[in-house]
Design brief:
Length: 152
């Protein structure tokens, strides 16, 4: 749910009013089209996506024949060749696992006004601020592999 301005109250960890947090949240909503369209309603599923990724692999191979019966091959692979050319190419930047971006924390309900209390988590005011480099198993880095194969 994306609240309209003034619909919720922003507070800090101590429960004091946080006008800077409210301004930052409103800036985030203004900067992300899907949040802007969803104000006063729930955001539709898969309404916003992480940036696309283009990776290219290169293989150079040389075949050899050993008589009529045996064959061999030497090969040289570069995986994620685009990342070798430029470190920002071929890198996977996306919202981390469980695929949710949480800009605020629910702090409760004001007993006097019934207004929901939110705390700004200070993660940023642009959609890209919620993405991080995914590289736990090397999927955003280039790799080189040398090999040989012998068929008989």
């Amino acid at each position: 749910y994306v609240p309209n301005p003034g619909e919720v109250r922003f507070v800090d960890r101590s429960g004091n009013p946080d006008p800077a947090g409210e301004a930052a949240f409103n800036e985030l909503v203004a900067n992300v089209a899907d949040l802007r369209r969803s104000q006063g309603a729930a955001v539709k599923k898969n309404g916003n996506r992480s940036s696309s990724v283009t990776q290219m692999d290169v293989r150079i191979a040389q075949d050899f024949n050993f008589g009529d019966r045996y064959r061999g091959q030497f090969f040289f692979d570069i995986e994620n060749f685009t990342n070798l050319l430029n470190s920002s190419w071929g890198a996977i930047d996306q919202v981390g696992f469980n695929w949710t971006a949480r800009p605020v924390a629910f702090e409760g309900v004001d007993p006097e006004t019934g207004q929901m209390l939110y705390r700004w988590l200070n993660r940023g005011t642009e959609a890209g601020d919620y993405e991080s480099r995914q590289d736990g198993v090397g999927q955003s880095r280039w790799r080189i592999q040398l090999g040989a194969r012998f068929d008989f």
